[in-house]
Amino acid sequence: MAQESSHTDRAIWTETETDQFVLYLFNNRAQVCDTSNFKDVTYNGAAEAIAPHLQNGPKKTRTMCKTKWGSLKQTYNTIQKYCQQSGVHWDNVTGANIQHEGTTTVWNKYILKKGNLPMHHFCISRWRHYERIDGIIPQGSGI
Known about the structure:
Blueprint: H1 15-27, H2 40-50, H3 62-83, H4 101-112, H5 130-136
Helix pairs in contact: 1-2, 1-5, 2-3
């Protein structure tokens, strides 16, 4: 079982660790609850599964994994919220595909609104975890 660290240890997530974490949750998606969260045993398993990929910072704990999942869900929910608007584009190849002056102005106003800032990464790029997280979160869960 992953031992919990003190509150002063801060998780540093590399792309490899995040990729392995999302893959672990995707492979264990049957354990997701109605709230789109997992039980502690799943987060413990995830911490153990990604331990061999540690490159920096402290070993990941259940709490760190739970916090990371919350952050990933927030990004997913921000994309979903964006997609529900009328007249916007999203695909997981070019993201929002904002490339022209007119759309850039509208985009900049949109991402400055409360809760929309996580979308700024996806102006013209995809989110590498979208497909797997979309496969984890129960559709219609309204998270």
